[in-house]
Amino acid sequence: MTESKLGLPVQTRSSGGGAVVLTLGGLAAAFGVASCCGLPFLLAGAGLGTAWLYGVALVAAPHRLLLMTVAAVCLAGGAILLGRQRRQALCAPGSVCSKPAVQGLVVVGLLVGSALLYLGYRYA
Q1: Taking the model in full, what pTM does it have?
Q2: Is residue 6 part of a domain?
Q3: b/e per residue, 63-79, with b = 16+ CB within 10 A?
Q4: 3 lies in some domain
């Protein structure tokens, strides 16, 4: 919120980048958590090689609890911001959050991030 010339609060419109950034951060942290255990099983079941995940898992394994916390907070924050944008119509015309494709990708990112977070928690 900003103040007008009279000192009264004026609500500004959001550009919508917050939900996208939080979703990407949560997705990256959840990928790090799941890289050691659940993600190799999932990818091997799909017929994909998982040898490249060893390097990611080696770096992420000592920080598993921190990455799980960051992923959960980022994904929850992204979901809350997306819900607020949809409910209160905070998006200005032409902004990032007003595009339906961006909103759909944020929803998909939240779902994939949640699945990776669950895999990392369950199989570690």
Answers
A1: 0.71
A2: no
A3: ebeebbebbbebbebbb
A4: no
